[in-house]
């Protein structure tokens, strides 16, 4: 089958489009990336998403409207990509959607819940092909956290009989999948370690009006602020025992701006400290909650931040830290490919939640299917 995976993650930097060939399913899955493109998120959409993510921000009419506006944009980007690359037919599109809120556990006032928007009907209408979306809901229905979902794909693609491996994704949030050598599905262990690029990006926006710290250059220049570092390393989430998942609610703009008010230090010292905190919270979670590994394979945009990776390597001296590029894959396309795999399982009526990662009570078939509109066009 030919399929397209769409991923718009917590960084809000853009839409990843991965065009793949996929054969078989579950442990027989063979997937090949045929083409990839990232479409930058237009500024006005990014602002609307950020507004809707805030508890004192988006009202119901803003979220209602953005759901359709984003679906339309996802659909148009996919259509443009297919036209440019001369792709005339695909079997399905798997769309993650844009997470605008995630409540992993019941709280006093709220039911555990998660919301990914970007109306699939618009994507199906614009492209004409069936769309599989809303992957997290069924895992949550089965009492899981609805995240992380990528570990299922990691298990299919990266398990090894001779090496203990950890897959790390440094997106807006960082998450790991631990695959010990010869592991069975029930041995897979995966969770969000804490922030990825989210806090660093907030600081770059605040101090320099830039979207991110390109190659970690600012972090390389600054010095660690011990008081800020200690405050961050003591945050409750970092020490919580998995399964655990998190998001913008904890490590987003609100936290960043409290810190900017509290610590009046040079901009680059801020960025260095946030970068070291990001690396060290990942390393701490690996050391505390896994048995370590031979290889740590890094994906996500954070794989391009050299200062972050150098710090990570220094915290894990006995581990080979590699990027997806170094093993012949793509750091940017990895999550979009994972959603192609999850969509393929939906069409095979096969479960795709890794219950050891999400904490769900049962293995479930994920996703909702919006049918192709091609027949109607005829
Ligand atoms: N050259 C680079 N140098 C430093 N950082 C970079 C570079 N390129 C990308 N990034 C970082 O990567 C981020 C985007 O990462 P990615 O696309 O993996 O996140 P995401 O998929 O939105 O997040 P998540 O996986 O949490 O949902 C950017 O916001 C930026 O911080
Ligand atoms: C609720 C939500 O959107 N979570 C994302 C987010 O971004 C990274 C991390 O936090 C992970 O838990 C998850 O995404 C990936 C794709 C996952 O489900 O594995």
TrEMBL record:
<dbReference type="GO" id="GO:0005524">
    <property type="term" value="F:ATP binding"/>
</dbReference>
<keyword id="KW-0808">Transferase</keyword>
<comment type="pathway">
    <text>Amino-sugar metabolism; 1,6-anhydro-N-acetylmuramate degradation.</text>
</comment>
<dbReference type="GO" id="GO:0006040">
    <property type="term" value="P:amino sugar metabolic process"/>
</dbReference>
<dbReference type="Pfam" id="PF03702">
    <property type="entry name" value="AnmK"/>
</dbReference>
<dbReference type="InterPro" id="IPR043129">
    <property type="entry name" value="ATPase_NBD"/>
</dbReference>
<comment type="pathway">
    <text>Cell wall biogenesis; peptidoglycan recycling.</text>
</comment>
<keyword id="KW-0547">Nucleotide-binding</keyword>
<comment type="similarity">
    <text>Belongs to the anhydro-N-acetylmuramic acid kinase family.</text>
</comment>
<dbReference type="GO" id="GO:0009254">
    <property type="term" value="P:peptidoglycan turnover"/>
</dbReference>
<protein>
    <recommendedName>
        <fullName>Anhydro-N-acetylmuramic acid kinase</fullName>
        <ecNumber>2.7.1.170</ecNumber>
    </recommendedName>
</protein>
<keyword id="KW-0119">Carbohydrate metabolism</keyword>
<dbReference type="GO" id="GO:0016773">
    <property type="term" value="F:phosphotransferase activity, alcohol group as acceptor"/>
</dbReference>
<keyword id="KW-0418">Kinase</keyword>
<keyword id="KW-0067">ATP-binding</keyword>
<dbReference type="GO" id="GO:0097175">
    <property type="term" value="P:1,6-anhydro-N-acetyl-beta-muramic acid catabolic process"/>
</dbReference>
<dbReference type="InterPro" id="IPR005338">
    <property type="entry name" value="Anhydro_N_Ac-Mur_kinase"/>
</dbReference>
<feature type="binding site">
    <location>
        <begin position="9"/>
        <end position="16"/>
    </location>
    <ligand>
        <name>ATP</name>
    </ligand>
</feature>
<comment type="function">
    <text>Catalyzes the specific phosphorylation of 1,6-anhydro-N-acetylmuramic acid (anhMurNAc) with the simultaneous cleavage of the 1,6-anhydro ring, generating MurNAc-6-P. Is required for the utilization of anhMurNAc either imported from the medium or derived from its own cell wall murein, and thus plays a role in cell wall recycling.</text>
</comment>
<dbReference type="GO" id="GO:0016301">
    <property type="term" value="F:kinase activity"/>
</dbReference>
């Amino acid at each position: 089958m030919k399929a397209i995976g769409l991923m718009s993650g917590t960084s809000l930097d853009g839409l990843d489009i991965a065009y793949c060939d996929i054969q078989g399913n579950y442990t027989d899955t063979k997937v090949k990336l045929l083409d990839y493109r990232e479409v930058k998120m237009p500024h006005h959409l990014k602002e609307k998403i950020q507004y809707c993510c805030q508890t004192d921000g988006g009202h119901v009419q803003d979220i209602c409207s953005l759901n359709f506006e984003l679906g339309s944009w996802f659909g148009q980007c996919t259509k443009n990509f297919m036209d440019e690359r001369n792709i005339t037919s695909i079997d399905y599109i798997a769309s993650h959607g844009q997470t605008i809120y995630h409540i992993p556990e019941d709280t006093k006032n709220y039911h555990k819940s998660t919301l990914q928007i970007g109306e699939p009907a618009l994507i199906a209408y614009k492209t004409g092909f069936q769309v599989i979306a809303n992957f997290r809901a069924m895992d949550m229905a089965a009492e899981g956290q609805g995240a992380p979902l990528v570990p299922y794909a990691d298990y299919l693609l990266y398990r090894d009989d001779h090496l203990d491996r950890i897959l790390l994704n440094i997106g807006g949030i960082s998450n790991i999948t631990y695959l010990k050598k010869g592991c069975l599905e029930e041995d897979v262990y995966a969770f969000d370690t804490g922030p990825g690029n989210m806090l660093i990006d907030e600081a770059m926006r605040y101090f320099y009006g830039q979207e991110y710290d390109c190659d970690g250059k600012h972090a390389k220049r600054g010095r660690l602020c011990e008081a800020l570092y200690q405050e961050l390393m003591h945050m409750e989430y970092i020490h919580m025992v998995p399964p655990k998942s998190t998001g913008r609610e904890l490590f987003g703009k609100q936290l960043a701006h409290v810190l900017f008010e509290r610590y009046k230090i040079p901009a680059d010292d801020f960025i260095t400290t946030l970068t070291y905190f990001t690396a060290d919270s990942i390393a701490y979670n690996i050391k505390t909650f896994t048995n370590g590994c031979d290889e740590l394979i890094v994906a996500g945009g954070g794989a391009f931040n050299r200062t972050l990776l150098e710090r990570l390597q220094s915290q894990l001296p006995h581990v080979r830290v590699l990027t997806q590029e170094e093993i012949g894959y793509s750091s940017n396309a990895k999550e979009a490919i994972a959603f192609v795999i999850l969509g393929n399982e939906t069409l095979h009526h096969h479960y795709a939640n890794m219950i050891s990662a999400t904490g769900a009570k049962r293995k479930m078939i994920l996703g909702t299917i919006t049918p192709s509109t091609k027949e109607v066009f005829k």
